[in-house]
Amino acid sequence: MSAEPVAQQPGPWQPDPVRQRQAGYTLEDLLDLPPDAPRVELVDGVIHVVPSPTLGHQNIAGLLWHWLRTHAPAHLRVAQAVGVALGANFTREPDVLVHLAEVPAERHFLLPHEVMLAIEVVSPGTRRTDRFSKPAEYAGAGIPAYWRVEQDPVQISAYRLADRPGPSGRREYELLAETADLLTVEHPFPLALPIAEITP
């Protein structure tokens, strides 16, 4: 009597190594990912797995989402971890974003002109990306406002897209406010956000 071979379960989803080397992934491929795929971003055709956030990161993002959702005017909506299609082979997922209310709820990706504010909560593993790469990408795509939230202590740096290109010849953000107390800005809507209310 011979033993039946044991069927091996497939491992967790991974990007195809050949397509990764060729930088051949597109937005359509992200829509076809299996249900067990992790959260990912698409950077110049290469799939990047989004690092798992800490509890502190998620607490701040959740409080910020709730505060903005409570105070946003009727023509705006607030979302968490929704992809923004910056190009045919480029996506990012801001931790929190403010977008136009008219965007259909069944959409998987927002377009840059539909996003009024992109917010990133900085974690140890995302410092360089959140401070340098993502602001440049969001500004290049024309997203009008960007906030960077530091965690310890909680502090917000709020930026607005400058009217003229910067020294690089591209559109860049200009700093409007930086505070660990009360954030008062006009974009994406007039607001006065006490930082204590988004501090866990």
What this model shows, in words?
By secondary structure, the protein is an alpha+beta fold. It has two domains: 17-49, no CATH class; 55-198, tt1808, chain A. The chain is 22% helix and 32% strand. The chain contains four helices and 13 strands. The chain has helices at 17-22, 27-31, 55-71, 127-141; strands spanning 40-43, 46-49, 76-80, 83-87, 90-92, 96-100, 109-110, 115-121, 145-151, 154-161, 173-179, 182-185, 191-194. The strands form four sheets. It has a six-stranded mixed β-sheet. Strands 5-4-7 form a three-stranded mixed β-sheet, with helices on one face.
| Average pLDDT rating | 92
Strand order of the largest sheet: 3-6-8-9-10-11
Tell me the distance between the termini: 63 Å
Assign the structural class, choosing from mainly alpha, mainly beta, alpha/beta, alpha+beta, or little secondary structure.
alpha+beta
- Give the tally of β-strands: 13
Give helix % range. 10-25%
Please tally the helical runs, counting DSSP H or I stretches of 4 or more residues: 4
By CATH reckoning, the class of the largest domain would read Alpha Beta
